[in-house]
Amino acid sequence: SAQAILKGEATFVLDPKSDEWLPHVLKRNADRAGVKYHYVNFQSEIGQLNLLEGATAKQILEMLIEGLDLVLTGGDSDYYKAIGQRAAKFLANNYEAGETFADMFRKHEKYIRKTYDGSDGFLTALESLAEVESVNAHKSVVNLLEAMENKEVVLFVGSVFDLGIKRVQRMLYVRLAQLAMSRGNFTTPKP
Predict the structure, then answer these.
(1) Each residue of 21-53: b (16+ CB within 10 Å) or e?
(2) CA-to-CA distance for 16 and 160, rounded, in angstroms?
(3) DSSP 3-state assignment of 184?
């Protein structure tokens, strides 16, 4: 990561083990490169990020399908995953700007439970996202697209055990890929 920072590349690092020295190393290299450094701790009880911020309905659906493990695999669980996909599509199509996962859960839980028979697993997974307070900020402390465009450094401290945070980590990967692809200016990296 230090090499990427010093080459002037936007650098996003996910540390699920909470390395003691990594924040210092990344901050020092960001300072050397003259770019902003951001620290987002998914284990925090303070709202820091909203992955839904600026996302389209299609992008929200992609994040929910990946983050809540709703990809159809040809197995017995596909029946419930398909129900979850329909519920996720409902959430994505009814998203209102500024909402968080917690807002979605509170606002739509009863409707989904009543409308999508067999949605208990989906709602349990959505509730686990709602309980990760760090990603339920109504205003993010770092704008991921701006950080990408300005070639900034962002460290995300995650978890190897917390199921809600592990889901957030998968969704973060999808969101960063969406933002990178939306920019549409891929260039060949310099050696």
Answers:
(1) eebeebeebbeebebebbbbbbeeeebbbbbbb
(2) 5
(3) coil
% of the chain beyond a pLDDT of 90: 90
Neighbours of 20 (CB within 10 A): 7
3-state DSSP assignment of residue 12: strand
Integer CA distances (angstroms), 104 to 23, 25, 54, 111, 131, in order = 32, 37, 15, 11, 12
* DSSP one-letter code for 158: -
Phi then psi for residue 9, to 5 deg, are -100, 145
49-96 pLDDT, tens digit each? 999 999 999 999 999 999 999 999 999 999 999 999 999 999 999 999
- Going 44 to 46 to 52 to 53, the CA torsion angle's sign is negative
pLDDT (tens digit, 9 = 90+) per residue, 70-83?
999 999 999 999 99
pLDDT band at 133 (very low <50, low <70, confident <90, very high): very high
